[in-house]
Predict the structure.
Amino acid sequence: MPRPPKNASPLDRLRHYCAYQERCHSEVKAKLRDWEVPWQEHDELVATLVAENYLNELRYAKLYARSKMRQKQWGVQKIKQGLKAKQVSDYCIREALKELVADEYNDALQKAATRKWEALKTETPLVRKHKLVRYLLSKGYESEAVWALVNRLAGE
């Protein structure tokens, strides 16, 4: 789809914007504000994009959750926080998190933990454990899973 000219209608420009990459409603509305489209037209334009299937919040949430887990090794908490920041509905967030495969999720946690554990070799054992726990919690993993994995890596 070729890029529409600057003087194209906002709807044509939005179609291109949404066809290029999955978007959520808040991103589309932010783009409309950037383009200085009157706010009275925002809801109608978004509704048109939804009707034409250019915009689907559930599809966006599922893709966001899968990609953040696979590419950045994010945990459930951080994914949920990111979706809330994008103003995605609670229903879509719950459905997206159901899509995460437990084996893949555990592999992502294991991969992130092992990489960081190896990087902390010069630290004392207690400092190493605490730095790893802080790192994994900041990645959004649940504390029970983090502590169980850290104790296993530390040989306890």
Summary: The chain has nine helices and no strands. Residues 31 and 129 are 44 Å apart (CA to CA). The longest helix spans residues 102-119. The chain has a mean pLDDT of 92.
